[in-house]
Every structure is written in structure tokens, then in C-alpha cells.
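Example 3.2
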Amino acid sequence: MHSPIGGTRVSLRRILWATDFSTCSEAALQYAMAIASRYGAHLYLAHVVRPESFDFVVPEAVTALLEEARRGAEEQMARILVTGRLRGVSHQVIIGVGMLWPVLSKLVQEHEIDMIVAGTHGRTGFRKLLLGSMAQEIFRNAPCPVLTVGPKVHGDLGDGIKARRILFATNFSPASESSANYAVSLARENQADLTLMHVVEEGDDLSAGRRMEVMDSVGRQLRELLPTEKEAEREPEFEVEFGSPSELILKAAEEHKADFIVLGIRRPTHLFGHPTSDTAYQVVCEAGCPVLTVPCDPAAKEASQASRIES
């Protein structure tokens, strides 16, 4: 049995927007600003100048090129600030130089970042999963939740962020339990409709009777993820499907007109190191709305393991 999620409000005090100044990053900035404004969070606007970009340049020219790239990044950030879009949002620009993730990781730790927001290219490639080098680095390493904004997401938010419909897809792993609190909290905070979904990956054909048994069992597990206390939230919906998780999650998001998808993931040790991360990659690349991926909370993982041992 999974532990019910409590009614704790998610706290977002410090948000990091990581950019490579691409069109995808620009769309992600709209969401970063809107979320920072909504939660009263401090927004860090970060770009990393990467020495490996000059691997084929003669050593004596690298220093000058890095300095030129750093100045170029500062000018790009200045263009963003001069528009006045960040007026009313507490913010700070950070230009780092070095390997991408080590630099970002240091920022995450030093500033106690609660969420990273990044744009994704969503291109198809090897195994049809290619987010773009920056998003890949963040996706596979970040210890905090990551909001990814793909190329199919509309970046013009007009009067602000709208979260009227939230789709939470879970495989009942410890990582998914950690992310349930985010989905429930976001739904409550925005008085949004919440759908909890699980996809049963089909192996052998199941009889109609067996399917009903599985659906009943999964439905109970989905309900167990909700807070035990009754509050004035909207009644959530529950959805159990059979087939390909990524395809059915994307289909459900489209049918429900979801404004956000929330997924729990275990960060893989390498890019394609875990089947569940393949599902998350596919959803992130192709979703028509932002996708919030929440890594496994170590405490939740230990509790889950202890529960399995006791049972």
C-alpha cells in the first residue's frame, strides 16, 4: 500500500531559468516568469558559456573567444531585461563559464533552487528521444523538479499562467509518490481539475474479467495517493489504460486539454538508462503543454523499501 499524500502546499521560493537563448528557451521564460510571479519566488536567469564549444580552436584563442561569448550572453540577457517583462518579479542574472551541469549544479545547491525551468527542442533522433543538449543535461541530473517546455507548447501566456486542468501520470514508484504532492498542491492552488492516471503495459492478452480486476486494483491505488482529509477541492478523475505509457499519456493530455503534466521519475545514471525515463523523455518531447518531472524523494524511497520489507 502506498502512503496517502498529505495536504502540504508546495513551496517555490527560488526558480532557475536555464537558457541557451533558443526559441524554446524563450517560451520557457514565459512560464518561469509566470510561476515566479504566482508564487512570489525569486527568479534566477542563468546561461552557461561552455568551453567545449571551442574544442577545435587553437588554445591561445580560447580565452578571447570565451570572453567574447560571455559578453554576448550578457548582451542577450540585457535585451530581455530592457523589455520590462520582469518588472515586479525579483530576479538575478547569472552568467557562468564551464561545463554545463557542474556550473548549474553549483547554482542549484548554493541558491537552494526549488525548480528549474528549461526549454526543449523535442527533436526526433536516436530512439526518437532528443531534447537538446542543455535540456538533456538538466533532465538527467537535476535533484529538484524540472519544468520542461517543448516546441509544441504555446509560449504567450497573456494575463498569466493558467492551470485549469492537471494530468498526473504515475507508475506507483517512489518517484511517482513524490510527485503526487506537487500535482495535488498545484490543483488546489489553482482550483484546477485533477486527473490521476496509470497505464498498464500490456504483455500477454488479458481477458475481460482480468482487465476489470486490474482496473479495480489500480483505481484503489490511485485513490490511496490522495490526501486523507477532505477539503473543498474539486473531485478528481481516475483513468486506467492499457498499452504504451507515453502514447496514452500524451493522448490523455490532449483529450483533457491538460495545462500541465506531472510525472515522477528516477534520474537515470546515463541518458537512456531506465525504461521509465524513456516514457518521460517521449512525453516531454511531444507534449502540447509543459511537463513537470519530479525526482524521487530519498525519504519516500526509503519508506517504500521499508514497506516492502515489512510486507
